[in-house]
Amino acid sequence: MWANGSSPGPCFRPMNITLEERRLIASPWFAASFCTVGLASNLLALSVLAGARQSGGVSARSSFLTFLCGLVLTDFLGLLITGAIVVAQHAALFDWQAVDPSCRLCHFMGVAMVFFGLCPLLLGVTMASERYVGITRPFSRPRVTSLHRAWATVALVWVVALGLGLLPLLGLGHYTVQYPGSWCFLTLGTEPGDVAFGLLFALLGSLSVGLSFFLNTVSVATLCRVYHDREAAQQRPRDCEVEMMVQLVGIMVVASVCWMPLLVFIAQTLLQTPPVMSPSGQLVRATEHQLLIFLRVATWNQILDPWVYILFRRAVLRRLQPRVSTRPRALSLRPSLAQDVLREP
Predict the structure, then answer these.
(1) Is 87 left (phi over 0), alpha (psi -120 to 50) or beta?
(2) Backbone region of residue 132 per phi and psi (left: phi > 0; alpha: psi in -120 to 50; beta: other values)
């Protein structure tokens, strides 16, 4: 399969791998188990989020839950769509060139990989920005945030990620079948379009992670300063703000650990001299192995995201730390930072 031959289509390149090697690497049981666990985790998180939304709450928490719902929904659809293709390929070990000679399936999967890869990073920085404004600039944000406005922001993130994913179909770079022949992704080639698109993907993802780190650090520092203020600690306890920041920091850590190795590897490979890809379009086997490993690590983000919300809720944290629930109930129900500030003389 693709051994010592020319590339017959825009998404195919030489790949020296035998059917026996593919059987050892492509395990349908591992892929199916991985997807099942991920889908179940995201469904559980969606059900918990639905219960949290029905219980009501202040506007800041409602906006945060909307963004979080968009994140979990995106992770669920990402696992469902890309996982279905990978599991089917691993189970049948079909020849991609024979099944998809026009590269339509490969292009679809490439767009999906970029879209569902960027969305969690962009939604993470969106949530970090919303919490940063809500905590450090309470007067610059509306006291009542429209649910439609929050969903419109999520939709805007989806449009941006989809627009970037469609760039190879418009001529900037191209998607190709990747080792071991079971998935499609951007090409780590030497053509200007491939280099530009790959660096754009890596740069946008890295900037999202870096900006999230900066905004979350400032927000956490602000909350810590407020909590250490004796008068504020007596008048303005903010369990909701702390809960949201703990979840947001957890999402940021998961995204950084899962995605940064792949993003750095893409940029490093594209900028390497001499180029890693040969003129015929073949990658060094070690590079193909690394790309596959880093991609699998990045995919864990879609499984771990829902568990950050499930495990780091106040109901769970209070069981682990009973002292959190010993505070007076009247204080724990105080709404938001903006409302607390407005009540001050």
Answers:
(1) alpha
(2) alpha
pLDDT confidence bin for 283, thresholds 50/70/90: confident
Per DSSP, helices labelled H in the chain are 19-25, 28-54, 59-92, 96-99, 104-136, 147-165, 192-228, 230-235, 239-271, 285-299, 301-311, 314-320, 329-332, 337-343
Give me the amino acid identity at 139: F
Q: Lowest-pLDDT range, 93-107, 262-276, 309-323?
A: 309-323
CA distances, 326 to each of 182, 332, 340 (Å): 54, 10, 21
Alpha-carbon distance 80 to 258, whole Å?
19
What the block records as the tokens of 30 is 């591992």
**Amino acid (one-letter) located at 288:** E
234-269 burial: b if 16+ Cβ within 10 Å, else e = eebbbbbbbbbbbbbbbbbebbbebbbbbbebbbeb
Q: Is the dihedral of CA 287, 290, 294, 299 positive or negative?
A: positive
Q: Measured between alpha carbons, how far is 227 from 221 in angstroms, rounded to an integer?
A: 10
Phi and psi based region of residue 107 (left: phi greater than 0; alpha: psi -120 to 50; beta: remaining): alpha
Burial of 175 (0-12, 13-18, 19+ CB in 10 A): buried
CB 210 within 8 A of CB 128: no
Residue (of 316, 262, 258, 286) closest to 124 by Cα position: 258
Are 305 and 254 spatial neighbours (Cβ–Cβ below 8 Å)? yes
Sign of CA dihedral 125, 127, 130, 136: negative
Report field, pTM of the whole predicted structure over 0.85: no
Q: What is the DSSP letter of 184?
A: E
Q: Which residues pair with 183 in a beta bridge?
A: 178
Which tens digit of pLDDT belongs to each residue from 153-180?
Answer: 999 999 999 999 999 999 898 999 998 8
Q: CA 275, CA 257: separation in Å to the nearest integer?
A: 27
Digit-coded pLDDT (tens) for 76-110 = 999 999 999 999 888 888 888 888 888 999 999 99
